[in-house]
Amino acid sequence: MNDTIMSKTDAAARVVAARLRRGLSWSEIAEEIGSPLVWTTSALLGQHPMTQEQSEQVCRLLDLDDAVAESLRAQPSRGTDQATMTDPTIYRFVEALAVYGPALKELIHDEFGDGIMSAINFRVDFARHPDPAGDRVVVTFDGKFLDYRW
């Protein structure tokens, strides 16, 4: 018996492989466990802990063992490594925040006052919108405003 818990990275790799081999979409998995699409995908990639029930449902669906379920329940070290940051899709999000982040900060302060948008009390949504010039990716960040209190 191994005394260590499988790493989130190893569990995520097994989840991704099992999902692809079974021909399941992320949305089908999210629907199966009754959780939001983006949150579910992020959790299965190691960024959120799942409940015991969620981890067991996913592992039954994907025919994965208890070691993966245990890892899915563990607290994560959130963030990503530098190699991941160079992925073109992820880098475009970094680029968008580099270009629009200062303007969004100013707009938050203008509309709400001195404070920040929470990334803990937070929802994110993803959608595809058809467009004659090419389908649009729509990502919505929905965070609670947290005012600075002195």
UniProtKB/TrEMBL annotation:
A GO MF label: DNA binding
Keyword Lyase: yes
Keywords: Lyase
Regions crossing the membrane: none
Enzyme Commission identifier(s): 4.2.1.104
Residue stretches making up the Cyanate lyase C-terminal domain: 79-150
InterPro entries for this protein: Cyanase (IPR008076), Cyanate_lyase_C (IPR003712), Cyanate_lyase_C_sf (IPR036581), CYNS_N (IPR048564), Lambda_DNA-bd_dom_sf (IPR010982)
Stored HAMAP family: Cyanate_hydrat
Family: Belongs to the cyanase family.
Name of the molecule in the record: Cyanate hydratase
Chain's gene name: cynS
